[in-house]
Amino acid sequence: WYQRRVRDGMEDSVRSSNIAIDGTVHQLTSNVMSICGQLLQHRETVGTLLQGVHHQGTRQLQLSIIQRAVGQYILGIITALERNLAVKSEQYENKCLSALFLMNNYNYIRRYLLEEGELSALLARPNEIEPAEKYADLIERQKEQYRTWYRTLTDVCIENTGSAVKKESEKAQKEAVKSRFKTFNNYFLEQWTVQKKWAIPDAEFRHMIIIDNINAVMQCYVELYERYRDAKFTSNPGKYIEYTPEHIEKMLLAFFDQ
Predict the structure, then answer these.
(1) Residue 1: per-residue pLDDT
(2) Per 3-state DSSP, what percentage of the chain is helix, strand, and coil (rounded to 5)?
(3) pTM for this prediction
(4) In order along the chain (258 residues), what is the average pLDDT of each group of 10 residues?
(5) CA distance 153 to 213
(6) How far does the chain reach from its first CA to its final CA, in angstroms?
(7) 101: closest CA among 249, 239, 236, 209?
(8) What pLDDT score was predicted for residue 2?
(9) What are phi and psi of 256, to 5 degrees?
(10) DSSP string, 211-229
(11) Do residues 218 and 249 touch, judged by C-beta distance below 8 A?
(12) I want to staple 69 with a disulfide (CB 3.0 to 4.6 A). Which of 50, 136, 183, 233 is the partner?
């Protein structure tokens, strides 16, 4: 009864909290992990309360029972947090921001477990993936959702309109190239304006996401830029080729900058 009441109360607390507009780590994620650390420090007292009675037997057996009870209880708390984070992520209209929010929170939990080895060991179960590795896998799943933002750009870059502007259907070829650059420019500027306001508080994780963005976008844009910068598709190329590759990279580095 005690265990259920405390855990249900924590679930209600998580459920009722607001989300940040920049997708940063939720305050309750840090609070809950801190509480889990405190439960670990006082595991003998907590375990005795959870069990309700003192078990008979050797001291070693009692400690084993207590450890198992506390581990199961903390696992329930973190699972409840994880479940509610998933619900909260649905409040974001932007699916990429939703994924970023989950990545930030999963990364916080993962880093906490890596730093608190005793807690990770307490949560480990035979024949199951290590707790920190579990959250690494969850992060990878959300990365796939986040990466959808630049697939529009890569689709524009790899669209097959010919290797250069040809004499055949010259007007149509020129218009197609203009359209590709206009689509890229407008969408990239939109994403830069939005994502520079998003947050990744963990510097190492932020760097990893930015490098992933740079690798994907630069690969496709450099190819598009090099293919058409000297092609005679317009009398005013600066109107359509607004960015050099260096400029694109600089703007990508400004993501998550506020």
Answers:
(1) 45
(2) 75, 0, 25
(3) 0.85
(4) 52 63 94 84 63 52 69 86 94 97 97 87 79 94 96 81 55 89 95 97 97 95 92 89 96 92
(5) 11
(6) 45
(7) 209
(8) 45
(9) 60, 40
(10) HHHHHHHHHHHHHHHHHHT
(11) yes
(12) 50
User: pLDDT tens for residues 180-235?
Assistant: 999 999 999 999 999 999 999 999 999 999 999 999 999 999 999 999 998 888 88
CA angle centred on 169, ends 180 and 159, rounded to 5°: 30
Q: What is the CA radius of gyration of the chain?
A: 25
Query: Would you say how long the chain is, in residues?
Result: 258
The neighbour count for residue 216, using CB atoms within 10 Å, is 17
For tokens 């650059």, what's the residue? 181
Which residues are CB-contacts of 146 (< 8 A; sequence separation ≥ 6)?
96, 99, 100, 103, 209
> At how many degrees (to 10) do helices 148-158 and 203-228 cross?
10
- Are residues 100 and 200 in contact, defined by beta-carbon separation less than 8 angstroms? yes
In the block, residue with structure tokens 């005679």: 232
14 CB-contact burial (10 Å; exposed 0-12 / middle 13-18 / buried 19+): buried
Cα separation, 71 vs 77, in Å, equals: 10
Give the number of other Cβ atoms within 10 Å of residue 133's Cβ: 14
**Cα 255 to Cα 97: distance, rounded to the nearest angstrom:** 13
CA neighbours within 13 Å on the CB side: how many for 16?
A: 6
Question: What pLDDT is attached to residue 61?
Answer: 47
Residues 6+ apart with CB under 8 A from 55: 61, 62, 65
Which residues does 78 contact at the CB level (< 8 Å), separation at least 6?
32, 33, 36, 109, 123
